Amino acid sequence: MTDLASRVTAVLERSVLPSVVARGGSLRVAGVEDGVVTLEASGSPGAALPLASRAEALIRAAVPEVTRIRVIGPGGEPPPAAGGDLGDRVRRVLDAEINPTIAAHRGHVVLTGVDQGWVRVRLEGGCQGCSLAEVTLRQGIEPVLRARAPDMVGLIDVTDHGSGTHPFFSPAKR
How far apart (Å, rounded) are the C-alpha atoms in residues 104 and 20? Predict the structure, then answer.
């Protein structure tokens, strides 16, 4: 492990990692190249994704050589940073970064449309009707999409949560 990766790992271990582990997830430094740190999130998607922006802020403040943080799912690769229209870029982020992570909760996110920068998504599987769907959407999915597609105006959830038949966390668990 490089010195930079060791310093980033130390920041994670003393700040964000205990919260991620307590929530049933894991976060590790998968690589560091040219100031870009790749973090691999695994386990519960509600554990690491909501803390990704906090982890980035803490790491960049403590390790000034870090210029950017990427979060990937287990063994996943993030989408290319540029190229294609907004819908294509959002779809690549969902497929490469978001869906592999929320699959741990039998969840899946589908892009249903893009209109004037507004991105519409539908949550499926264990995410449909989940009592923590809004948290995952606003604190996990939306920050990742905003970081990867800065031209996104906003995110709209078009899911019919009331018809979810097997939510990962039922409304009674709220």
Answer: 15
Taking CA atoms, 32 is separated from 1, 35, 66, 71, 75, in Å, by 9, 6, 9, 12, 15
Residue at token pair 């870090």: 66
User: What percent of the chain has a predicted confidence (pLDDT) above 90?
Assistant: 28
Answer yes or no: are the C-beta atoms of 141 and 109 closer than 8 Å.
Answer: yes
Domain count, the chain: 2
Q: In this predicted model, what pLDDT tens digit does every residue of 48-87 receive, in sequence order?
A: 766 777 788 889 899 999 988 887 777 665 434 445 689 9
Q: Which region holds residue 39: left if phi is over 0, alpha if psi is between -120 and 50, else beta?
A: beta
Of 72, 96, 127, the domain-final residue: 72
Of 72, 104, 127, the last residue of a domain is: 72
